[in-house]
Amino acid sequence: MPESFDAFRYIGYMRSHWTWIGASCGIAVTIALVVSLILPRQYTATARIVIDPPAGADLRSAMAVSPIYLESLRTYEEVASGDSLFQKAIEQFGLRSSLGAGPIESLKKRVLKVGLVRNTRILEISGTLPDARKAQALAQFMAESTVKLTRSMVSEGDQELLQ
User: Distance between alpha carbon 51 and the CA centroid of its chain, in Å?
Assistant: First the structure.
């Protein structure tokens, strides 16, 4: 039959082995401190874009979520995470010199994170770099460029439709 838990016996055991427990905790804290001081600093900045559905004359249609609107959310996400936009950011901020040479996909995995916030219409674009100002500028650049590029695509589509 298993023995029941005895708090006094447990406290007695802990008291008799306090040096081993204290030394283990001290070593763990020391190792964590050394590792945190050795690792390079990384800063993450996040830009959020609220994507509103297209305005219409009928108020009931504004309240309903259409499949076209849901697909436009994915379009924003694809544009923001595209290689061409990230390549422009690499050139503008000189990221090759600070992050090293390598394939654009591996750089993008390390630096950029794009995704829709679950059950919302918010697109989050995060940039992680060793310099906090560059990280903020990258996130802002990617967000503004995504909006500009998507608006220009919609405008071109409207112009073609009118012609």
Answer: 18
Global confidence as pTM: 0.67
In one-letter notation, the amino acid at residue 45 is A
Question: In CATH, which of 1.20.1070, 3.30.300, 1.10.1200, 3.40.470 is domain 43-162?
Answer: 3.30.300
Positive/negative CA dihedral, 126, 129, 133, 137:
negative
The domain segmentation of the chain, as residue ranges, is 7-38, 43-162
pLDDT along the chain (163 residues), means of 10: 74 86 94 92 90 58 56 77 84 78 81 85 88 90 87 72 69
Contact status, residue 112 vs residue 17, Cβ threshold 8 Å: no
Gap between the Cα atoms of 150 and 163, Å rounded: 20
Residue 57's pLDDT is: 43
135 Cβ neighbours under 8 A, 6+ residues apart: 43, 44, 45, 127, 128, 129
